[in-house]
Amino acid sequence: MSNSEKALEALQNNDLDEYQKNLKNALDQDNDDMLFSLAEELYSLGFSDDALKIYRQLLKKYPDEDEIRTYIADILIAKDDTDGALEVLNEIKPDTSYYINALLVEADLYQTQDLFVVSEHKLIEAEKLAPDEPIVKFALAELYYSEGKYESAIKLYLNLIKQGQLSISNVNLVERLGVSYAHVGNFENAIGYLEQIKPIDMTPDVLFETGFTYLQLGNYAKSIEIFEMLRDTDNQYASLYIYLGEAFEKDNKPEDALRTYQEGLSVDEYNVILYLKAADIAAKLGKMDLTIKYLEKGNQVNPDNMEVVTKLSEIYVKDGQFEKDVDFLSDYLSDNNLVPQLYWDLAISYDHMNKIKQASENYQKAAMNLKDNPDFLKNYIFFLRENGKVNESIEFLKQYVNLVPDDDEMVYMLQDLETK
């Protein structure tokens, strides 16, 4: 029995001391074929360090054997020694049969390090050397897909499918092509490919893309059907609730839309978009208390989301909660980038609270950016007139009439003021 065989037998008997003794003897005495086989066995059994020791010894003896380098690289990759693996792979010579595979492995390693340009360079080099090799085109397509370069990915996926390659490495290329078309906005082509995927092969991501594509094509009933299928498959897939709700809204089913957004919030209570969606549909249904509830919760989740702040302030004003609006916006007044709408809301609230000085100050701030907004101008004009600032109102009246020349009431007001 060879030392290699004795080492493996010792492992079977859980005699590690005997194993180590025979491993050392094998390295010193066994022939190279025995050592090569021992390394393979040890690696398969999880003794990668010892396998690596054998391969390195063999490589010293056979420095031109790039096959050994590939085994060493595999072990180093498994040990998360990316730098070591790349160093070994870079030693593989371009004129060997292992070079293209080395390029593929290098590209994958660089991609894991987010070095996409280097990864692309390696794959393009591989494609030049093996232009008809499907696995090379597939690797390059997958790189582009992961980077969001869908136009480039589409060309490669199409090429592979035309060659009869529908699946590589358990990746459905028809699915990839359909999703890529969806991402570039070519929804007609996207749905043509996505519809070819068998229901059993529909992953949650593919169901989502299919439902989203039907939504973009205006087929709301089909979109709802697919999104509900996804919800039944994986009700924790948080992204679906936004678009399922939108599909219900576009299909004139507001109650179903509101229920969907509420379900989504039970899955993802920190999703501000869902709070905004729920608030908007509640407002359309005339459920003001519910609208305020969702906007206030959205504001608690993310106080810096100015869309929530603006909508909540607007609702407070519409609902006549002027003091609450002023108190709410006081936390944001130190922000020099406050949106003009909020200054307008503050002006209205202060006006209703008979705090004319504060109202005037905020109207002036709002006017700096809302001079092209007819609704604001009209509101401001009446505020100025009611507070005796007739001459100041003329400038804004001229601006308003220029924007809305068919508003007879305001035209007559301007004419009247200019003749006095």
From TrEMBL:
Residue ranges of TPR repeats: 238-271
UniProt keyword terms in alphabetical order: Repeat, TPR repeat
Coiled coil: none
InterPro entries referenced in this protein's UniProt entry, alphabetically: CellSynth/LPSAsmb/PSIAsmb (IPR051012), TPR-like_helical_dom_sf (IPR011990), TPR_rpt (IPR019734)
Entries under Pfam families matching the protein: ARM_TT21, TPR_16, TPR_6, TPR_8
Domain of life: Bacteria
Protein name: Uncharacterized protein
